[in-house]
Automatic annotation (TrEMBL):
This is Sugar ABC transporter ATP-binding protein. The keyword ATP-binding applies. SUPFAM superfamilies: P-loop containing nucleoside triphosphate hydrolases. Gene3D superfamilies: P-loop containing nucleotide triphosphate hydrolases.
Length: 260
């Protein structure tokens, strides 16, 4: 099976600063590739390369088996890669259905008589959201009145509706409580089960593990390894994320100091 996305030894420098070096992973249809790491680990740099915001300096970036170098986010979108950033790029005072389309609104009429097709827009948005298991009271309500989890779900449903094959989610549960995080993770699983390849960026292994297929851990721009779910437990994933080896070495040092 050809991977939807494959990065092989990818690297990125900003002047003398090495932001990413020798990182490899794959994103397959119907799977979730989780990219984990603390702030400054290189997660943002990796997704910006995948999303067409920046170009890689070293390594290979393949989409459906063909090597690519995106010149812009539009190139990535045209290749079926949709990115939902942490700030969501929504207009809080605009209705849910208008945010759902945001630049691709359905219209009726031609020329100077062309106008928004409110009815079709509302019905399409409501049906697409319901199809993803999102039941909103009113798609005319301002998107700013929704909870953080609901707004994330609208953004995910929008990407799915407009034909994304790969969905990149940038820290979708970072600012959410337990219940709202669960709502978003359910949408991640829904997208996965519909055959999309999902890249889930997070610093929380307890959010990644229930939905993840493979786990790439980054630290200071380098990969600490990529593991399939069958090969790593939540405890080991958490230990690696927390810098388990470094903590053990520190504990050993402290014991030695205490004994002298």
């Amino acid at each position: 099976m050809t991977a939807l996305i494959e990065v092989d030894g990818i690297g990125k420098n900003y002047g003398s600063v090495v932001a990413l070096r020798d990182v490899s992973t794959v994103v397959n249809a119907g799977e979730v590739t989780c990219v984990l790491g603390d702030n400054g680990a290189g997660k943002s740099t990796l997704i910006k390369i995948l999303a067409g915001v920046h170009q890689h300096d070293t390594g290979r970036f393949l989409v459906n088996g063909e090597e690519v170098r995106f010149a812009s986010p539009r190139d990535a979108l045209d290749s079926g890669i949709a990115t939902v950033y942490q700030d969501l790029a929504v207009v809080p005072l605009m209705s849910v259905w208008r945010n759902f389309f945001l630049g691709s609104e359905p219209t009726v009429g031609r020329g100077p008589l062309r106008r928004l097709d409110h009815r079709r827009g509302r019905e399409t948005a409501r049906a697409a959201l319901a199809d993803m298991g999102i039941d909103l009271r009113d798609v005319e309500q301002p998107v700013g009145t929704l909870s953080g989890g609901e707004r994330q779900c609208v953004a995910i449903a929008r990407a799915v509706h407009f034909g994304a094959k790969v969905l990149i989610l940038d820290e979708p549960t970072a600012a959410l409580g337990v219940k709202q995080a669960g709502v978003v993770l359910r949408q991640v699983a829904q997208a996965r089960d519909r055959g999309l390849g999902v890249v889930l960026i997070t610093h929380n292994p307890h959010h990644a593990y229930p939905v993840g297929t493979r786990f790439l851990i980054l630290k200071r721009g380098a990969s600490l390894g990529s593991s399939e779910k069958a090969d790593i437990s939540i405890e080991e994933l958490t230990r690696q994320m927390a810098g388990g080896a470094e903590l053990e070495a520190l504990e050993h040092e402290l014991r030695e100091v205490a004994s002298t």
